[in-house]
Amino acid sequence: MRVLVAMSGGVDSSVAAALMTEGGHEVVGVTLKLWSGPDGEMPTAGCCTLSDSEDARRVAATLGIPYYVLDYTEEFRGGVVDRFVTDYASGRTPNPCIECNRTVKFDRLLSRLPEFDCDILVTGHHARVVDAGGTWELRRGTDRAKDQSYVLSMLGQRELAVTRFPVGEMTKTDVRRIAADLGLRTADKPESMDICFVGQGDYRGFLRRTAPDAFVPGPIVDTTGEVVGSHQGVADFTIGQRRGLGVAVGDPRYVVDIDPDRATVVIGPRRHLKVGSIHLRDVTFTADPVEGGVSVQYRAHGEVVPGVLAGSTVVFEERQEGIAPGQTVAFYADDRVLGGGVIASTER
Amino acid sequence: MIYLDHAATTPMRPGVWEAMAPLAAERFGNPSGVHEVSRRAKDALEEARERVAARLGVAPSEIVFTSGGTESDNLAIKGAALAGGSRRGVVTVATEHEAVLATVDFLERLGHPVTRVPVDGDGLVDRDALLGSIDDDTAVVSVMAVNNETGVVQDVAVLARAVAAERPGVLFHTDAIQAHSPRDLLTDHVHLMSLSAHKFGGPKGSGVLVVRDGVRLEPVIHGGGQEAGRRSGTTDVAAAVGFATALDLAAEDHSRLATTVGGIRDDFEKIVADAVPGLVVNGGDAPRSPQHSNFRIPGVRNESLLIRLDRAGVAASAGSACQSGAPSVSHVLTAMGLSRDEVRESVRFSFGWTTTQDEAAEAASVLIEAVEALR
């Protein structure tokens, strides 16, 4: 086969590329250039330093495969960064990595397979695509602790038919061992936990710089509507937040609701965080649509909880905490991904 | 691989490496010492300087060896702007190489008055607009001879003469790194000229700044005062010899480059234009270097085209590249009035001393096929 490998410069995609070359396939490596500069500005010299792409380039050279950097900065800004900012300004809790998978990575790269004369796309995600007799199933990666099927839950048959995740069959330890055995420079590279465009940790600083207009001061009220404090902008808050409220009340208080239209943050006791059902937008299924009992995962490495899916609504068997609009939800049957969606609203 | 990216760099001409090699091992001395070993290196260095000077029609004392074109541009512009006393300003052109533009940006941050004169749709700077940007504060005017992306030729001789006539006392620098006949550019009114060896069959990391006698220049690299105090640091004798050797070979090959290679370029452009409807040559109505061809193919993104060409064994470029290897959005074409999308549909083929008619014809058919596949 001819294989296009999306290489991030990390160990997983390095090994994914290596496994493909070892398997005798004809491999082309690409890195998506998504972002330039901490504030989005192009460096004045018109050059873009990207140490991760340098790692990917070196790995590609070690493997003896052609390698290209593809410029998706505009698409990323429009599809991911602007949305991230809008979401926070609207009181939602987005997951930009999933948004990137949804709007940039898979769509764009898959559409370019013919351009590279490639048959399939390979990435370094920890997940598996299984041929189940005419249907492509998306399954959790073998290493459950590293499983990334949640962030891939928007993929459908069209995508799964031409996408493979070779490291999904192995543990992270195996991945690193193979990388070391092959002498790949990324073998010991630490995992990146940060949102790529925010840098280290502080997404609120990023929001303040990027969207100062989103920081409209307003009141903090309790669940009866009484004003108990003030804030500098709803983008500073997420549902379930306990710290940094600047409000002294006897019992622990949490952000239980955010009303961006009135620039109001509502705080309340923990029981107000309990969510009984959620309404979703952008619901997709990996194969045929399903209804009824499903296992629901609403955090990247969260556990699954039972719920009932009906149309675009999920009713939890037991009410859940830590759920906010903007988060992605994935449906599972055992280790098989059935589909997913994005939380539009929640109900207690 | 068919290599049509000579504007990015060229392979060394036969004989250059051989001329350099003895300086690395046998005649390895530091040319600034007192002993025999140093003298032998110093002799080689000064002989190289004399050869370069003779080729360019200047005095050996007017040749400053540098680490390449970028350093030459930096030294010329910073050196002039910092040595000019009350004259601190820089006037340059919007389509200059980054080595000039980023240097000018830096000086602007230090408080130097800076003007970047726009160009017209063909990439040419207007003489009166250039003159009108010069004032009593201007220390140096910098205009590149041949644009690295489009090959568009500015009339440096005319511009330099006009500056000298209207604004005596202002220095004139030209980045001649892409020019195939730099000697012709060195009129009395050009005070500083940057050259880079690897653009004409010499080694990378080897450049020259021509500094006409009497020009005051503040060094940008301070230290032991080598190169008559203009460029400190132990001089790379091998690089200097490589420069001199390549310059000799290029000069001897000059008419072939101008006519034969220029003809190959013209044929290539014609074959492609006939087969690809809508093709527009960028700077096509301006005088152009015989070695450059930069054109736009509507509906075909340059990134996709260049990858496809690479896969098919043809090396071309988008004119300028990021460190990451992805094409960056060309400031040159933008300054010529192309939209962002038009810039992203533009590719550069550049021809050089190794290019053959057969190679260019093969590249043209590969290109035509790639365009058809992508359209």
Explain how this protein is built:
The complex is a heterodimer of chains A (348) and B (375). Chain A is 23% helix and 30% strand. Chain A has helices at residues 11-22, 51-63, 73-89, 96-111, 157-160, 172-181, 203-210, and strands at residues 2-6, 26-33, 67-71, 120-122, 127-131, 136-140, 163-164, 218-222, 227-231, 254-259, 264-268, 275-285, 292-297, 305-310, 313-320, 328-333, 336-347. Chain A contains seven helices and 17 strands. Chain A is of the alpha/beta class and 348 residues long. With 375 residues, chain B is of the alpha/beta class. Chain B has two domains: 2-9 and 254-374, Aspartate Aminotransferase, domain 1 (Alpha-Beta Complex); 16-252, Aspartate Aminotransferase, domain 2 (3-Layer(aba) Sandwich), CATH 3.40.640.10. Chain B has twelve helices and twelve strands. A seven-stranded mixed β-sheet of chain B has the order 2-8-7-6-5-3-4, sandwiched between helices. Chain B has a three-stranded antiparallel β-sheet with strand order 9-10-12. The longest helix of chain B is centred in the last third of the chain and has 22 residues, at 254-275. Chains A and B meet through β2 and β3 of A and α4 and α9 of B.
